[in-house]
Design brief:
Layout: E1 2-10, H1 16-32, E2 36-52, E3 55-67, H2 73-82, E4 86-94, H3 96-107, H4 132-152, H5 167-176
Antiparallel strand pairs: 1-3, 1-4, 2-3
């Protein structure tokens, strides 16, 4: 038995019952073809990345199922294309890693974030990985170092100007030599 997953977006203009009836239609279609429905996930109303048929949102459904062969997939995709209530769809074959990922996700092992708090490090800023205070200290040290080096610097010596020599005096100096 091969594992498949079909995800489709239903037009949000329909009523709630019509949306559920649309999803149920395709679930029943899969069952009539001899498929075992593993899980139906109604993801709900979501914003689209770009407008489709002048709509900016849609109701997402994901149906995971097992089938003896994939011969009926083309018929099901043709039905999805012809249905005006379906805005987009995607059918994929799941490998063993995809099946395990979906099972873990349903079991709650994936997708939930647990935050760990450290009570002893109240100074550290969590958003920057605790580096914020260190950067401030380094900046203060750098500023003090620059300020101290400016105080210690002595002005550069100015080049001494040679006395103005006229052309006549240079000519006489050359003659004397």
């Amino acid at each position: 038995m091969k594992n498949y997953e079909v995800t489709f977006i239903v037009d949000p203009v329909l009523s709630g019952e019509e949306i559920k009836a649309t999803a149920q239609t395709y679930v029943e279609h899969l069952k009539s073809e001899g498929c075992k429905i593993v899980h139906v996930d109604e993801m709900g109303l979501r914003q689209l990345a770009y407008p489709i048929n002048k709509r900016t949102s849609g109701v997402y459904y994901c149906v995971e199922f097992e089938a003896p062969n994939g011969e009926f997939i083309t018929k099901m995709e043709l039905a999805l294309r012809r249905d005006e209530r379906i805005m987009r769809f995607l059918t994929v074959t799941l490998d063993k890693y995809g099946v395990k990922y979906n099972a873990d996700k349903r079991a709650g092992k994936i997708g939930k974030v647990t935050k760990k708090k450290k009570a002893d490090d109240s100074k550290k800023d969590d958003r920057r990985g605790g580096r914020r205070d260190d950067r401030r200290d380094n900046r203060d040290n750098r500023d003090n170092r620059d300020r101290d080096s400016r105080r210690e610097r002595k002005p550069a010596p100015k080049p001494e100007k040679a006395p103005a020599v006229s052309k006549a005096s240079t000519a006489t100096a050359e003659e004397e030599e």
